[in-house]
Amino acid sequence: MSVPSATRRPSAFAAFYEAAADWARTDGLTWIYLFKALAACFLALGIAMKLDLPQPRTAMTTVFIVMQPQSGAVFAKSFYRICGTLVGLVVMLALLGLFAQQPELFIVSTSIWVGICTAGAARNRNFRSYGFVLAGYTAALIGIPASQHPDGAFLSALTRVAEVVIGILCAGAVSGLVFPRFAGMQMRGTVRARFSAFVEYVSASLAGRNDRARIEATNARFVADIVGFEAARSIAVFEGPDSRMRGGRLARLNSEFMTASTRFHALHQLMNRLRANRDSGTNGTDDADGADGSHGNNGPALAIAGLEPYFREVAPLLAKSGEPVLSAADAAHAAAQLDAYKAELPSRVRATRAELQTHADAPLLDFDTAAELLYRFIDDLHAYAATYASLSLDTHARERWIERYEPKTNGIAAGVAGVRAAIVMMMLGAFWIATAWPSGSTLTLTAAAVCALASSAPDPKRTAFQMAGGTMLATLMGLIAVFGVFPHIDGFVMLCIALTPFLLLGVSMTTRPRLAGYGVGYCIFFCFLAGPDNLMHYDPSAFMNDALALVLSMLVSSIAFAVLLPPSTPWLRNRLLVDLRRQVVLAARAGLARVRSRFESGARDLMFQINALSPNEPDVKRDTLRWLFSVLEVGNAVIDLRREVAALPSHPRYATTAPWRLALRALLDALAALFDRPREDRFASALAATAEAIAEVQQTMARFTPSRDERDQLLRILSQLHFIRTALLDPQSPLASATGGHGRRGDPPEEGVPHAT
Questions:
Q1: Taking the CB of residue 190, how many other CB atoms lie within 10 A of it?
Q2: What span, in angstroms and rounded, lies between the C-alpha atoms of 375 and 346?
Q3: Cα 757 from Cα 755, distance rounded (Å)
Q4: Domain chopping of the chain, boundaries
Q5: CB 438: neighbour CB atoms within 10 A?
Q6: Geometric angle at alpha carbon 744, from 743 and 745, rounded to 5°
Q7: Strand, coil or helix: what is 277?
Q8: pLDDT tier for residue 449 given thresholds of 50, 70 and 90
Q9: Angle at Cα 206 formed by Cα 214 and Cα 756, nearest 5°?
Q10: Can you give the pLDDT at residue 666?
């Protein structure tokens, strides 16, 4: 029996609609971006020509430099470009005034300034680095050509800045008005997806469904999400009042997510250690020296049995009517459940502890440490859910957030990038002066731009080489456009039509990750070579000289990145790994006001940088992740310890000269020394200092009968000390291999061993 055509059409129409919607979400967005880039380019070109500016091609080039698929990225990039351009203008006018008649000193001073700006670009992150890039590049772009005609330098500089500003304004206007794509809208989906992913990760881990590989992959993804979220937040504030009104809460959300994920991992690791000790027949990590005062081999099983019921209660708190949290309203419900659970948790834990005390071999220190971590995790998770819930309101008290995400970039690496750029500029400037090459100015200023732009890329040598390849293609297409097309057209409309296929080729390459470097080189330098002026000059010799200078400057820059302390070599990864370990030093010695956000964001940002330098080295990524876990566990315990000590009441027994306070200070110094440079003797010193601090605190508690609040504070201090000891003795910790294998007790436990069920 055949189906009537009337019943077939809806299904066919639905399939067509679904295919069209899928195209609109993927390739359609790419095509919209292509035509927006061309529209902004032609708008800038037309305005610059109408104002009779000497080089309208500069406005075209600026459009392709700042144009991004997201409107907020264009606004942010434009803001920092204007700031950098103005700073570069002021500096270059000063250098021209000082060294206009001394080309050697002018090249040296310009090279030093470009090196300083390149170092600043490498030191900073996101679009702030772009301001440094432009401060250096604009100085070279304006100053080097103007140095040939010092009498007209001021007017030349102003017209060049006007061309740059026109390009910036046109790119921003088109991006914000024509089918805008706002990062703030995309961040809502990111917030929802990350909260749901974290809830699923917590539930699966507590249920024992996550093995070690999945835990590592999930945490590595969380690191990338944290860094990407901060980058998106930093550009969303440029998009409108809605994003600015929630900027503080979004920063807080990122910080609270870092803290909650770290706390959960510490709790998960501690329970895995307890379970491993139970299975191996030992009594906790202190069975060798009796630091917890317990004996016997049934202790870990008792602690696990006392804690498991609480873990089973966590997952239902993160759901609404049995369904996962998907919106801010659902998060408000979860936050209310977590708040009620947190309020009753201390009394329930005290009752469980009292029951455990009836067993002679109960490891109370293990139980207290795990219970304290559980409470802190619930507290952090409640804060995270409450901040997520607050995003549904335009204004909220949680917006007042003074903590900041503080990325860490190695100062030595930034300095090397600056020195490299200065050396390249000086070499090419000396070549220009020695040969008097007409395109020597193009050679020198392009090298400054390439060194600065590529220095922030994961593989700058490859980026510079790709830009050279794109420039070679731009040279070929530019020859066709300038000498084969332009003489046969008339009028601005025909000019735009003629330029469209040439520019579409380059913009389309920038949308493909593998061809992005070629696309950037093509778009920027096609405009430089073939961009039309009000009065065209058809000079094949000058065209080929400029093209040769462009390609040569990029090849020299690529060689410099490969030879002069290349960023992709192990030395930079090792420096970043040292910086990662030294986050523990920061946790032990920095002021307490904002130490946690500085510690958490710095550690994750450093790991992200190491992973970016090792895209095809899974062993390096795995080793870095193990160091990140160790740093986060010990560093957070140190911060908690310092804050508990700072909150103690004023009394002689808590004075800084008390023996137990001196023992704590010795422990912090020993941990800082160990993570600064792991060695066998430093590991032994840190382990001994931990045992001494635990003993001193226990003796202090035995000398008097503290109030309930003081007792709880001292127990929390003892718990943090005990956790530090377990982290040092963990056979999975990279400290075990870095210090000669200390802390190993048989085979290492599998990280994904279930402990909740």
A1: 16
A2: 8
A3: 6
A4: 6-181+408-455+460-563, 184-399
A5: 13
A6: 115
A7: helix
A8: confident
A9: 125
A10: 94
- Pull the structure tokens for residue 317: 């708190």
Q: Which helix (H) or strand (E) holds 324?
A: strand 323-324
Question: Facing residues of 320 across strands?
Answer: 323
Q: Please return the burial class of 60, using the count of CB atoms within 10 Å of its CB with bins 0-12, 13-18 and 19+.
A: buried
**Least confident among 78-87, 370-379, 542-551, 637-646:** 78-87
- Please tell me the distance from the alpha carbon of residue 27 to that of residue 386, in angstroms, as a whole number: 37
Indicate the SS3 state at residue 319. strand
543 touches 479 (CB < 8 A): yes
* Degrees to nearest 5, angle at CA 593 with 587 and 598: 50
Question: Whole-prediction pTM value?
Answer: 0.80
Instruction: Tell me the mean pLDDT in the region 301-322.
Output: 82
| Among the listed residues 694, 743, 742, 701, the one whose alpha carbon sits nearest the alpha carbon of residue 292 | 694
Nearest partner of 37 among 672, 549, 590, 503, judged by Cα: 503
Q: Which of 278, 353, 381 is nearest to 755 (CA)?
A: 278
CA gap 696, 707 in Å, rounded: 19
Centre a 10 Å sphere on the Cβ of residue 592 and count the other Cβ atoms it contains: 11
**DSSP assignment of 450-469, as one string?**
HHHHHTTSSSHHHHHHHHHH
Tokens of 409: 């970039």
CA distance 10 to 47: 49
Q: What does the pLDDT read at residue 743?
A: 46
Phi and psi at 568, nearest 5°, equal -85, 0
H or E segment to which residue 160 belongs: helix 153-177
537-549 in b/e burial notation, b at 16+ Cβ within 10 A? eeeeeebebbbeb
- How does the average pLDDT of the chain come out, rounded? 83
Three-state DSSP class for residue 642:
helix
Give the integer Cα–Cα distance in Å for 656 and 494. 81
Asked if residue 498 lies in contact with residue 483, where contact means CB atoms within 8 angstroms, the answer is no
Residue 515 is given by DSSP the state G
Say whether 55 sits in a helix, a strand or coil: coil
Structure tokens at 223: 């690191």
Q: What angle do CA 310, 311, 312 make, to 5 degrees?
A: 90
Q: Which amino acid is at 102?
A: Q
Sign of CA dihedral 123, 124, 126, 130: negative
On whether the CB atoms of residues 496 and 442 are closer than 8 A, the answer is: no
How much is the average pLDDT of 226-252? 78
What's at 594, amino acid-wise? R
563-574: pLDDT as tens digits? 877 766 678 888
Asked whether the beta carbons of 661 and 721 are under 8 A apart, the reply is no
**Percent of the chain beyond pLDDT 70?**
90
**How many Å apart are CA 695 and CA 375, to the nearest integer?**
24
The SS3 assignment for 320 reads strand
The pLDDT confidence band at residue 290, using thresholds 50, 70 and 90, is very low
Give the SS3 label for residue 634: helix
Q: Could you tell me how many helices (H) and strands (E) the chain has, helices first? A: 28, 2
- 665-682 pLDDT, tens digit per residue, is 999 999 999 999 998 999
Burial 712-729 (b: 16+ CB within 10 A, else e): ebbbbbbbbbbbbbbbbb
Contact 304, 314 (CB under 8 A): no
Per DSSP, the three-state class of 323 is: strand
Q: Say how far apart CA 492 and CA 489 lie, in whole Å.
A: 9
- pLDDT confidence of residue 14: 74
